[in-house]
Amino acid sequence: MSTPSQCSTSERRVDLDWVRILAFGLLIFYHVGMLYVSWGFHIKSEHRLTWLEPAMLLLNPWRLSLLFLVSGVASRFMLGKQRLAAFARARSTRLLVPLIFGMLVIVPPQSYLQIVESLGYPQGFADFYLRHYLAFGAQFCPNPCIVQPTWNHLWFVVYLWVYTMALAGVLSVWPAAADWLGGRLAAALAGPWLLALPCLLFAAWRLFLFPNFPSTHALFGDWYNHADFASAFLTGFMVARQDSIWRDIERQRWVALTVAAACFVAFILVYAGLFPRSPMLRWFAGSAYGCYQWLAMVAVLGFARRHLTTDGPARRYLTDAIFPYYIVHQTAIIMIAHALRGSGLSVGTEAAIVISGTALTCLVSYEVARRIGCLRPLFGLRTQPRAPAGMAQRQPA
């Protein structure tokens, strides 16, 4: 039997399936945490747990970039199995159909409850949906002034589709781009450069774009996020078949983890306001943030490649289920948290109910959707179910 470091065409990249599953799973807990921290969210709990903020900052710089990187890897292997036009059609169906369904059916309760809690909206959901949600314009300005209809947490689907179509457009005029650029990138990232060069890139986005283009998830004008997420997506796409890169990622996982921890501590010390603010300090914090972002991704991918190699029914089930879970989870969180408002429950009890209720809602939604043919595409599932495979095969060394 081969070890995790060895490669064979029969091996499946179940490690990347597990990374995707765990990253989306963390997203559910992260959004529950948003109820309790001081940062803005659609609704808020009556309780505040500011001690959660450092823990959430531990995840925030890299969790979404990692998902885009893994999506880039998956796209590369999909293209190895089908023609470019078929790939573009398949990705559009799997992404846009759930997006439209989500914007019309899943997301509206989030907007309604946000308006109820922030403005005391007196009418029912049907009145809000017909008069405001389908207005196709800014509503309730100046505060909160939200554009309706909206995609809320489904922005990830929008961005992924845009990057995928842009990539398909490039490949339509330069079919050899993936292999040519992948080979050049693998050579550039050989050895210690794997950790150093992408750090410079992500630090540059943080230093030069973030101050002028803060995160909005609104697609247009969201230039920092586009630079960040598109870089991760394209990196995953280009290195997907470069096995030397994956061996280096696994080999350097401990170094990446150690330096990532140092960068995170440096960023947190500045974030906590322990030092007087200055332009030099802002540059230091931005550089530490960008480096932590990349190094944390390398550490996660390296440890996953070494240890998350076990396949089985749980991996196969969750690989299929995680996207429907993602579609449903935030609406479940907000509806359950709103129902518990004013209940007098302790924060621990309230959070436990929100988490367990969200998990149950996701489970039931998926189990219903996967059994009814017409619902499957609405939740991002294939029209006809099939046994889930690993994300991609490892390539020969």
Describe the structure.
The chain folds into two domains: 24-103 and 164-379, no CATH class; 108-150, no CATH class. Strand 1 and strand 2 (146-148) form a beta hairpin. By secondary structure, it is mostly helical. Residues 1-11 have low confidence and may be disordered. Helix content is 66%, strand content 2%. Helix 1 packs parallel to helix 14, helix 5 (108-119) packs parallel to helix 14 and helix 14 crosses helix 15 (347-371). Strands 1-2 form a two-stranded antiparallel sheet. It is globular and about 60 Å long.
Descriptors:
mainly alpha; two-stranded antiparallel sheet; 66% helix; globular; disordered N terminus
Q: Could you describe the largest sheet, including whether it forms a barrel? A: 2 strands, antiparallel
Number of domains: 2
Low-confidence stretches: 1-11
What pattern of helices and strands is seen along the backbone? Answer: HHHHHHEEHHHHHHHHH
Q: Strand sequence of the main sheet, in spatial order?
A: 1-2
Number of H/I helices: 15
User: Could you say which structural class the secondary elements and strand pairing correspond to?
Assistant: mainly alpha
In round numbers, the mean pLDDT is: 91
Task: Please report which band the strand proportion falls in: under 5%, 5-15%, 15-25%, 25-35%, 35-45% or over 45%.
Answer: under 5%
Total DSSP E strands: 2
Distance between the termini: 16 Å
Helix content: 55-70%
Shape: globular
What's the Cα radius of gyration? 22 Å
